User: Fold these one by one.
Assistant:
Number 1:
Amino acid sequence: MSALHTVSNRRRWWSHREIRGWAFVAPFLVVFALVFLAPIGYAFYLSLYREQAFFGGNTFVGAANYVDVVTDARFWDGAVRVLEFFAIQVPIMLGLALVAALAIDSGRLRAPRTFRLVIFLPYAVPGVVAVLLWGYLYGTNFGLAGDVNDLLGTAIRPLSERWMLTSIVNIVTWEFVGYNMLIFYSALRTVPEDLYEAAALDGAGPLRTVFSVKIPAIRGAIVIATIFSIIGSFQLFNEPNILRNLAPNLIDTHYTPNMYAYNLSFGGQQYNYSATVAIVMGVITAIIAYVVQLRGSREAL
Amino acid sequence: MTVIQEGTVTAGNVVSARRTRKVAAGISPLRPRKSRLLTGLMLLYLVYTLVPLVWLVISATKTQSDLLSTSGLQFGHDFALFSNIKETLTYRNGIFLRWLGNTLLYVVVGAGGATLLATVAGYGLAKYRFPGRRVVFAVVLGAIAIPNTALAVPTFLMFSDMGLTNTVWAIIVPSLVSPFGLYLMWVYAEQAVPQELLEAARIDGAGEFRIFWTVSLRLLAPGIVTVLLFAVVSTWNNYFLPLIMLSKPNLYPLTVGLTQWSNQAQGAGADPIYNLVITGSLLTIVPLVVVFFLLQRFWQSGLSAGSVKQ
Amino acid sequence: MKIGHRRRFRRLGAITAALAASSLILAGCGGSGGDNGSAGSGAKASPQALDAALKKGGTITYWSWTPSAEAQVKAFTDEYPNVKVNYVNAGTGNDHYKKLQNAIKAGSGAPDVAQIEYQALPQFALPGSLVDLSAYGLDSLESDYTPSTWAAVHVGDGLYGLPQDSGPMAMFYNKDVFDKYHLTVPKTWDEYIAVAKKLHQADPTKFITDDPGDPGFATSMIWQAGGKPFTTDGKKVTINFQDDGSKKWTSVWNQLVGDGSIGQIAGWTDEWYKALGDGTIATMNIGAWMPGVFESSVPGGAGKWRVAPMPTYDGQPATAENGGSTESVLKQSKNPALAAAFVRWLNNGNGIKPFLEKGGFPATVKDLNDPSFVNKPDPYFGGQPVNQVLTAAAKSVVPGWSYLPYELYANNIFGDTVGKSYLAKSDLNAGLESWQNALVKYGNEQGFEVNK
């Protein structure tokens, strides 16, 4: 805006200073390179080889693992499932989170702090207790689902084939609405007050303020939350892996691509193939996330 | 509050250049009425959120045998919360407290470091137009898109080569990186730190790091708090990495330790201690709630920091 | 040390190479090859060498999740104060194996002694990760153990551990349920089917047993029926689920799975424990270590449960092993003689007593024949001397069984294959066939010669 004019007058000095940005980013990138890029480099190296789990014999196979993954029905079975999951779950979760954030931020809610805390809490429940928790809630013999069915005369079995994906959607939504709510909420906190005043002067009602001021103002945060939700969906692992304890036949080892990579690695010591699955899934995820980012906001980032 | 006043002094003319910002709901000129409809709808959602948590709290009051003989949302025959807590804290020579201490260490160093790195880097990306900025974005995005479960074995082998496995560094170093925190700070800094403000400070002759330290950091406070909260919770809940990296129970964080307790329920020699697993889980949530309460003040103060000058 | 360093450099080289430009030519020479045959063996030591090692002392690390492990280690170090044992509970079952596998692959960080279940032993022994204890003359202990457990600690000709416990199967039944529905204790599987249907018809919320599809149970049932689906000879492996034994089992079990008279609650969950306590599950065919689990974890079933021999196909006693572990010495151990001496103490010496005190079921003939053990009445089981049934079971285990060299992998994909038949309540034979196909494919990819 107005700052940009002053900038262009002193370009040389300016760009020299801009370089200092690297000094801010460097410490992060150093650690990032160690804990993310190096293992990925190693995984890429692995993906070009084939080693037998019991007898060694490391051989270079070029792109053969990639060809196998791309033609692997089990991989695509999981990939389609997470896509389906993503299409259902992400809009619900982000929608609820946005509504909750706007409600808490609006000042029209009684006890907003309580809401903020309680909605966030599920994110803090440790995974280990989740098996017990959902085992109870979804149990049709002794659990809440059984009681609800008795009460309403329904026959919903949350851990049956028909309901499983819904059950996972429910868990993830329960856990992460609060998380995303906080992202939106803290972004709403940075919206300049004069924008509201201007809207009020224009005679905008609360709903119009929401749609024409608040949501556009936190667009960057929405895009980030969406990108991370895409990545989270495509890496879906914890929840199905937990439910696998309760429904081992329904949730198979390749229920999601991430579970497939995990089971290849830890169940069958197929490290090379596991790395390939991860990289292929990573590339697919990154492309989709990048497209969303490009479409979502040119100016936000 | 004192912090804010100091800020006003040191930042001097800087603050006057700042845009007027949102005022706390209580003193806003646009102060709305409370809405019963909205509160009611949100209450429904609250119930949805609470049911599983109620199960957790009720279950923590039951003995092992009540857990296996009574329904989940009913209290048991005995109210055993306190004896459960006592037993959790003393089981196997009080290993739980050791795990709690480890977790605190990992959280303080790991999440604290992650927040620092993410804040500094996010700010740098938002406020400097240096070459390679977009590459950073793309590389980080691409890297986190690769499922980390598949990277566990490569990471383990690398760390093993470096002699880091079975040390606290195997947990701390990876948790220093929060890509999500980076992006959040990036977006946040774009909005929260006005370019004019930096310009004004530069005209005053302040160096870049000094500007960051004395001017920008304060404006970023609500964002930092959010990033910190996420980093704390994710380090607190970190499970997979410690499971792979550590084989010494003395170094375990709570998550891995509790899972080990939970797994006692399996196979020959099974000795389920669900009551301790549940009570232990409840106890691990408590510190997070405390952190939340402590941090949420900063949302308020970050807010009022912006509203000092109207 | 030297070997470790070289390997370390090689791998780091590989990493940086891959990182720098992923230049394929450079990386070609790197790699993290298998860890077979690093430690030198060869020289045959004697049991005296173990005594000498104990005398000399030293430090060893022991990974185990056995409930009595801590007490055993304490008793051991009381007896041998100059030996230090770092006892580590690195996780139960699969978590433990994950870490063990990683440490083996990394070339360092593995313990000296580790608990390994019989089913998992070939998986670690075959690639050369374990020490053959016959090098220390421990093969002379054969007559101390039951034939089935002694067979279970052998892979090929090597002795890769000493049996810690055994799990000959028996039928545990809830007498209250049997009395209430006027059921008679079945001796054959045909009778068992009849009882199952009668019970489930009388009360659809009650099940004759619980089996959600469990690889350990399925293989044990095939074992009991005389099936030998896995044979291994070096790299040559045969997998065959179409033999008579497997078919015998599926022909019985299909009838129960098909009409839903078997419960499908996931095992070892709190729901499962609940169902054992409240009469939902009427019988369990399971290993002889089960009384300890009942007593510690199913308070609701106290006084109700009894033990009977497992039903058979022809009424003659026959049973199989279900579960059980060995302690093994790892090749990475820097003091294998001391480690072997510890294993000998654990499973052939004074370590057995603390193990039995914690409710373990022995593998040693002497303890299985000890009248005070055999005839001890058990109040949980209404005063029944359950060990009479269980020790008799230990003597009627069908011989000739062996596990697959990659049983852990097989277990992991059981749900993908046989599990689907359980889910659909359809023919288990078809499920076994798809399990077999997946296992043949995997084995051949990993360098075995399966069904060739």
Number 2:
Amino acid sequence: MSTLKIPVRKFDAVIVGAGGAGLRAAIQLSESGLKTAVLSKVFPTRSHTVAAQGGVSASLGNSEEDHWHWHMYDTVKGSDWLGDQDAIEYMCRKAPEVVVELEHFGMPFDRTDEGKIYQRPFGGHMSNFGEKPVRRACAAADRTGHAMLHALYQRNVRANTQFFVEWMALDLIRDETGQVLGVIALEMETGEVVAFHAKATIFATGGAGRIFYSSTNAFINTGDGLGMAARAGIALEDMEFWQFHPTGVAGAGVLITEGVRGEGGILRNSDNERFMERYAPNAKDLASRDIVSRAMVTEINEGRGCGPNKDYVLLDITHLDPATIMKRLPGIREISIQFAGIDPIKAPIPVVPTCHYQMGGIPTNYRGEVVNQDGSVVKGFYAAGEVACASVHGANRLGTNSLLDLLVFGKSSGDSVVEAIKQNNVAHKDLPENFADLTMARLNRLETQTDGSSVNETRLELQRTMQKHCGVFRFKDMMVDGVAKILEVEKLVAKTEIKDKSKVWNTARVEALELDNLIEVAKATMISAEARKESRGAHVRDDAPDSEAFPNGRNDAEWHKHSLWHREGNKLSYKPVNMTPLSVETIALKTRSY
Amino acid sequence: MARTMQFKIYRYDPDKDNAPYMQDISIEVDDAVDRKLLDVLTKLKAKDDTLSYRRSCREGICGSDAMNINGKNGLACLTEIKELKEPVVLRPLPGLPVIRDLIVDMTQFFKQYHSIKPYLINDTPPPERERLQSPDDREELNGLYECILCACCSTSCPSFWWNPDKFVGPAGLLNAYRFIADTRDEATNARLDDLEDPYRLFRCHSIMNCVDVCPKGLNPTQAIGKIKEMMVRRAI
């Protein structure tokens, strides 16, 4: 098929992805009357936001005094000072507004006795600039993401949003000036390839947690937005920073929310010791995720792991009132019974740090506009949620800030699009002549490949390489090897072969196309990680240990900057961290402890 | 312990098959790692990439991998492999058109869900802060809002098989009651009016297949009973 034969559909805006960020952006566009197409690989309520459990942060102060400025401080500190302070201030100030709005949309939050939104403690949430834990995580039991995603979808049903369900976007369309003009997408049911020609394109495609072998992420989290952006020449920011959630069910990888510790859960080693007291005397089990994950791995490495292979630790809630567990953590009980084979009312849950969240992504500003290295915007292109890097999470995200991120930046990206299209009265720019050549070449290669590599085995090779060479603790030599290995895997990805040639619901083709995206993310991660010669947040390497000159191994003089990975030539460049908040004073660099 | 398991799987690819057929497949299963049916399906797909089914979260919250397993609807990711009788017979959800293999066309199911206006209706200008709701009033939504729209219930319901275009079905009705039961929703009467119809609500004959299959342990029959009760109460 040549580019000429591809059907073209015109919309004011196209949103790729219908998880929390995509749905929140869609509300802004639909309610403003723009002709909008929302593309999703899965029915919207099956997006991975649905699996978020513990809560969404906002300084509502429903149970005790709280302030957005404290939330901002915690987020900057959590990010190990790599987050941009303008974007962080914007997000934390907007939090109460977007959470209340969500309640108005119908979100079934749990309630306090006064009928307000229920809030629970969470890792790294403190009052008065790091003094003591504060209840800031707004929750619907331990199903906050499910309740939120359904409420957002429902609001879109009300707004008559036009969805293209089970359509996979394949590539970004850019013209010679770099302006983004839409996407090319595949309808999974029919195999038809269609161009969506738009004045504005919002990526809300989520993360790529599936680059790791052990991940809390859904099968669909394959970094499609990142792959498309990278192939279209957009640099990816801070891709070395991946969050390993402390509590994935050992073996299964399924997430156990930090809200369990918020409700009083305790981590124990094989000596039954509450070991977090040694690592974070103040916040203990509610220290930031990177700190807790490293403490757990240290315990395991030093022989204090539990179980026959001493390869996990225990999350204990047996001391909690069973009624509290049934009311506040019913989903966790279900998951423990299903995936760990234990009832947490009676026995502790075996847990290990598991890949969970990508802090980096497509560089944007707080308006959701995609930006070049110099801060100028990429015309017509927006991103929000996990795929984007605003950057509010820096080197380590605070629990519950992901759901907040997608609400705030889903909304702001939507508002930016409405403003750009309505006020500036933008018209559709002509599509370049060969706009679909790359996509068609990829599809044709896949159709005709013989003697190729297996998609399944190549993906496993990629995941095992990332797990081994770029995990919770990183080692210089292992990372150097890891870069070489991932570049070998890339060669296999370039010649994947599928047996299924059907046009109808061809999942083999979809998985091969997803692998094209996973490899871009894996390269970006491995190469950015190998190059960053310091420890910061979730990126901790053996040759940058804690020292007097560099507390926690952090080297601000050389490395207080964002990485940008460019696909072309695997080059890296760097840009400064924004230390200038919108209205308050800079939160100055400081050594991080909990 | 590795052992060989027998499967019989419904196969149909409209691009090459004239008619659907049942395929016999055997596969090595290791009970230590292959705990759920979805784990084994993943293994089967690694061997034969043409086998088609939906899946995503693999933890029972996204609702993608609903199918008919040994005659009963359920989620592959929550089904214990050890508890399955062999040969394990896998079919697409009954009562909806099959697109390919275990993938059904869910248009009709979602159409019914959309028909109950699944969103909060409250035209009173909202306060600056959250609308208040007592913990007891919020409690009323438990057992309702947790629905994952997997369609296990509706596609196990004979009334839905007969009248998928007219009967809302258990999933839609459970969600209708989710909004009726919400103290913040102001459209209770309009919602009841809409359901007071020989087909939309009253095709439910309390067969309770829905309750039997719901992977989240929800009870649509009870929700339907409460809707009927409210209709009776407002009539007198």
Number 3:
Amino acid sequence: MSENYEPNIVAFLCNWCSYAGADLAGTSRVQYPANIQVIRVMCSGRVNPLYVMNALQQGADGVLVSGCHPGDCHYMEGNFYARRRLGMLKDLMEFVGVDPRRFHMSWVSASEGNKWKEVVEKTVEDAREAGPFEGFRRRQIDW
Amino acid sequence: MTEKPKIGVYVCHCGINISATVDVETVADYALKLPNVEVARTYSYMCSDPGQVLIKKDIKEHGLNRVIVASCSPRMHEPTFRKAIQEAGLNPYYLEMANIREQCSWVHQNIDEGTAKSKKLVAASVAKVRLLEALESKEVDAEPSALVIGAGIAGIQAALDIADAGFKVYLVEKTPSVGGRMAQLDKTFPTLDCSACILTPKMVDCASHPNIELLSYSEVEEIGGYIGNFEVKVRKKARYVDFDKCTGCGDCATECRVKDRFPSEFDQGMGKRSAIYLPFPQAVPAKYTIDPEDCLFLSKGKCGKAPKCAEACRPGAINFDQVDEIVEFKVGAVIVATGFDPFDASRKPEYGYSDYPNVITGMEMERLVSASGPTGGKLKIFTGEGEIEPKEVAFIKCVGSRDESVGNVYCSRVCCMYVAKQAHLLRDKLPDANIRVYYMDVRAFGKGFEEFYDRVRRENVRYIRGNPSEIFKRGDKLVVKVEDTLTATPLEDEVDLVVLGVGLEPRDDMRQTMELLRLSQSPDRFFLEAHPKLRPVDTATEGVFLAGCCQGPKDIPDTVAQAKGAASSAMIPLARGKVMISAQVATVDESTCRGCGFCVNICPYKAIELVTVNRYGHEIEVARVNEALCKGCGSCSAGCLSDSIQPKSFRDRQILPQIAALGVLK
Amino acid sequence: MDLEQLRKTAAEVVARDDVKYLIGWKKGSYGSRVAPAFVEDAASVIELIFSPSCTANLATYLTLVEKTPLPRGQETDKRKVALMAKGCDSRAVVQLLVEKGIHREDVIVIGCPCPGMIDQSLLAGKYGDTEERSEVRWNGKDFTLVRGGDEIEIPRNDVLAEKCRLCRHPNPVISDYLIGEAVKEWDPAEDSGVGELEAKDVDGRGDYWEGQFSRCVRCYSCRNVCPLCYCQDCILDRLNPTWINRAVNFSENTAFNISRAFHLAGRCIECGECERVCPANIPLGKINRKMAREVREKYGFEPGLDPDAEPFQASFKPDDPEDFIL
């Protein structure tokens, strides 16, 4: 593991709870590691589980998916689908040898700015411990 | 194929909000080197008029066809910039925002880190914006009517305003009468208006208004649909009294075999009512209701030889066979005005509310001092031994508010003033009593509040700074154990009556309302507004608005103001008669859809159906989206194995390059 | 297996006007191998067989038929297709019904209770792979290899296919005609293949699969043979967006295999065809069985049993496991 390794985290956040919660962390000037970059989607249910695989393949060292708490989904059920799909993906990835510390899922509501900070810290810390992702990373990535 | 993307990138300083921890010039220089970027600029406030003009000018002069604004959260200003680029002739959906304020400059102190992250976020936006598609918003008709849930002062005011503007209003109230908490109050601070005197006319108005359909003793069971077209299902609970025949004479209650046996909800349990009852004399509608649990005939199947109420009722309104009725209707907007619950004082056992009858809550005090209350306004206190007129009275403030031990960190905003008001009313009735108020702080922030507080203190009401730790009994007195924190003196204060200034809490049934309308809670557990400052009456669900204490504790004028605000917001779609439906809906590629129906199963809005189409002579089934019903969540898409259904603006082919861009730039 | 009954039933079925053809097995061209038979008339039913060599899953042919464009005015052939189906094949049929890949009224299932199939590679390894025509038969407990007049007893576990050792549903779960009697179910063996991998640490598993996926030639046989991979246009073939690059290397191969396995989670009926046809001998069954077990044990769902079930990937339970959520 390199000395100055800073993990690169891609996060998928639902617009209504987790993205709003991350915004609230900002308005409250909560400080957290800058390793995380957010892709906004309307609902955690939008997150195709293969995005997680794709993010690792395309240069992420860790991936986070965050949505509304169960029962609070703006679209009623999207987070339940996300939970089932991503739970299965996590099992699959772990079985084919992807360190489980590279992928996390969380529920962060629009009012949980501080929880967002904790989730980011945990995700970054875990990815840091897991080290740079070599695995099945693409050698050449362009967009 | 569409024209080649020409992107303009606009990096906002946001004063120093962004530029203090993000080197915006470096970000702009970097952006200029990214593919398809024609222009990259910084400006102090992109959202300001000159900022927007800058973008519009570039669109015209440089022929830009895509715009990226790197500034605050898209939840804040996406509509602003969409409108701006539309005014310059671009499709409003050719915009992408990079959130470098809430999710970057404000959360990272190190300027190198902030700048590096901003670059990545801008790059990801460039990756996506190139692939965005032009979308057209569609308009659908809006139902010119509104639903108001809860008929306290907030709901009543909102309903009246909307009805006065000429729209139909369905006002749904859970209890048998409108009026809510305000009807229970005696006087209102700081003006000492009689609460009933100012409220009753409004109650009557909302029952008689030709545009208001009052559904009292009713509960909303289901709300489907979307702004402009909500489909509402309401359960009208059986009153067991024919609404049209009942004249409200009250003979039934007088004759009821279990007359005055049950605690009156309206009198906080201090007064009694019969099994058939009118909640309070001024109740609207003035129609009696039988409580099925209290009524002998309904609960036990037998009431003497025959129910006496039915015998007493001359119009023959009693109908034990009545059943709940389901009413369905459509509305264009919904106002939630479900109110609050007073804090349950038994959750502070050290104050002995459950043990001593002469420890009462502020709400009970309202009923005690009210001329229409259970004692006719006389201050008779039962101490456990006998009835006395109290000589020594203590008020305790902040009971259940500003108190982490009960999970309520917030200030309830009304207790300071209602305690001052009650102290004043007591002073009127008991000129010789010693009245003191134990307080942590006095927050007399409103119009006329400080003046009123001054006046009460001049009326020989002592304010003692200290938060009592315990109340216990000594002889026939209650002892308030407290430290006067201004003089650091421990006190054991002997009193006859303790009034707990209980705070306001979210209703215990608010979960139901949340689920009905997909609302969220703020950390204080009240309903969350769309924006704490700029959209205080809106919710995250379009077409659903908040009024009154369900959104947070507030006094009557604030409640009325918010109700009027909610009413005017709700009237926007009603008055236009049209609502825009989101352009960001799911769309199906019928040439690849395999018709498995996973998306049909997944869609919570039943917006997708399978239709039979002809593909090269073969009849096959494919999914089709009803755009008016689709909310664009995209859950269908993540469940589609052939990727055939995709939400516009959040397609796989728009998101995957975003992922790549974030990964490439380590 | 009562071949008489099979052929009689088949003749009856294919003689119907509303039946296009019957998909079953016939003798193959060499060794004890068999080949799929598409029987269109009663006269041809004589070639139908059912033997321990009928390992393959014919349900894949239900969706494999290419729907070529029809000339204007020509009607599409709406006749039913009949299918010989073992336990695992019948589960594929049920899962196709769940996913509307076929409609119940379009298929006639000739259920064939299955005492267990052989793995041709095991047979060849132990008893040689000769061109000479031979036949494998069930003899009650074990198998008998009939070759050149010799009858060789083969202990069941020597050549039994892995999917059969682990099988929980040897009898058809759906059928319109049942040939012979239901077989007595056996206790599925412990899935040591999956278990051994689970016993490794995550890096150990990573190394194992790196060794496997690196050998993948991306021929897509696993996908093409799978009865449940029946999209018109597989996302892994697409260019816009490009999920998987064309390059054959460890990165893309892994992404391909993860994607394929994920798409089958909660859908795979464990017929083992992907692994059987893999020219690189990648043990794909281990991944599929691992996921099937997770779905069964954690979510209480087993695909391909109930045609009225909600598709696993398109449903949820409020109390689905969430111990992995932060």
